[in-house]
Each structure stands twice: as C-alpha cells, then as structure tokens.
Amino acid sequence: MSVVLSTSPLSPADRADYWHTLVSGTFIPLDVVLHEREPSPGTIASHRLGPLQISVVEAGPQTVSRSERRISEGGAEYLTVTLHQRGTARLTQDGRQALVRPGTFTCSDAGRPYRREQPDAFRFTVFRVPKQGLGVSDDDLRAVTGTLFSGSSGTSGLVAGYLARLAEQADGFDPYTGHQLALTTADLLAVLVRERRGLLDPQAPEAARGMLARVKEYVLRHLGDPGLSPERIATAHHVSVRYLHKLFRSDGTTVGRWIHRERLERCRRELSRPAGAAAVSVSAVAQRWGFVSPSHFSRAFRAAYGMSPRQWQADARTRSGPGPGTA
Length: 327
Prior knowledge:
Blueprint: E1 3-6, H1 12-26, E2 31-34, E3 43-49, E4 52-59, E5 62-66, H2 68-72, E6 78-86, E7 89-93, E8 96-100, E9 104-109, E10 114-118, E11 122-130, H3 138-141, E12 149-150, H4 154-169, H5 175-197, H6 205-221, H7 230-236, H8 241-250, H9 255-271, H10 282-288, H11 294-305, H12 309-320
Helix pairs in contact: 4-5, 5-6, 7-8
C-alpha cells in the first residue's frame, strides 16, 4: 500500500516549510532550498518492500544537500539510488559530479556529504537501501557515488530495468515476495558496486547471487507462460543451461522445482480469496499460472497442500464467511 504526501492543498507561501518536513521525514535529514518565488506543489508517493523504501518524487526546482550536521542527525546507514525520469540534475559527492538526465541513475551514500541540484521541474524514483544488506564497505561505495550510470546497457542497464519494474509493481507484492525482492535489489547493487570497484570475479559468490536474483526475477515475470524452460531462461541471461542448473543447486533446489513451487503458491493464494471476492474457476487459476493439464495441476496441488484445489477453495470461502448480499 502506498503512502502519498503532497503540498498541493497548501498555499504557495506555506509549501516551503512543509516540503522540507516531508523530504527529511520520508528519506533522511536534508537541507532543502526551493528556487521558485511561489513554490510549485510537490508530491512523494512511497512504498515499503521489507527493508527497501521506494518513493516517486515530483516537484519544482530545488537543491537538497546533506551536510555533516544533517549526517549527525541520523540516516547514515542508507544508500540512495535515484532513477531520473524528468528534468536534469547535478549530483556532487566525494569530489565528483554527475550531470543527470532522464534514463540514467545515480547513487548517494548518506554517510557522507552530498549535494543534488535540480534546476527545473523533475520526477524521479528513489530507492532507500540499507547499506548493511549490501555486504560491501564504505570505501567500495565510493566507487559509485557522484557517478552517472546508464539505464540502457551493461550491468547498470540490468539494475535500472529491474528497479523500474519493481517500482511499477510495488503495490502488488505480498509481504514475503516484497521482502525477497528487496534482498534481490541489494544483491544487484552489490554486483554493480563490485564491478565498478574492479572486484567482480565471475565465479565469486556475490556474482552468482546477483545472477540468481536476476534469473528469479525474470522467472516470476513469466510464470504464466507454459513454455518457460531452462533453455529459454538461460538464453535470456546469456548463460549456459549447465550454469543455470548450477546456480539453482547452490540455492538447494532445481530450476524446475523452483518454478513448480512458485506456480503452486500463486495458485494457492488465488484460491484462498474470501467469499466476497469474485468467483474464479480452478482451471482458470491453473492456466493463468502456467499449468497446461488440469489433472496434473490437481495432483500437484494435493501433493503440496494435502487436499484438492477445489477443496482448498471451498474451505477458504467457508472460513471467510458469507459474502456481501448473502442471507
């Protein structure tokens, strides 16, 4: 569920102070200077996925800065990743400057001073990531601060694409899936940091975890396709089928078993809808999540959950009580 905060209902005279409160309260303590005589409305829409905070920000020209005084007030434990969608910006940190434009992204370490200048109206998506979950040092993070990353090619393109899709769909994830996707975000960013730092070994555990995370994210987006196969997954990620199987063995499972489990889990959730929800047939649910044979689906569901899908659906509706309008 998203939380939307806005200065739109306020008069221009009252927006500056309230916007400063919104920015520092949503992210980390920051200094904010607005560059309009009558400030434009500003909006922040935020989601939480486990330890990850995702916020879409739209506002008028301004400069935000993180000073030593603000660092002492808290928030030093976060890395901020900003996907830029509209407007331009200049980010300064660790003696470097990045000239930001739409389709690129930047990283800011909240443990050290930085400055972000927005000379015109803008829209961007901010990911506030706990640094502890990255498994990299502050010195390693210096390799990515004050630096512009492409959103269209290489490792940075993969990261940008993943983050953009994650933000678009953030409202649709259950808590468990959201938490897992937050961990995936941390793994991908760690790979980016290590690559930029020159520490990335293709056989290193961190690289393998990053690749496995990307593979799982791809699989989750294509679960409903009955043609999803190890060969197709490997081709999409430019790796061999053998290496793909190796990745899943390191996770204690196989490609087929993981896909099968995720499909069954999504079917179970749909069949658990309360009595007031719109009725959906078992066969439609099975087909939606990639099961071609209804009989195979029924056997697999019973083996996983101890009863047939129809029984599960009926029990779920009984437990939730009568739906609206029933006597």
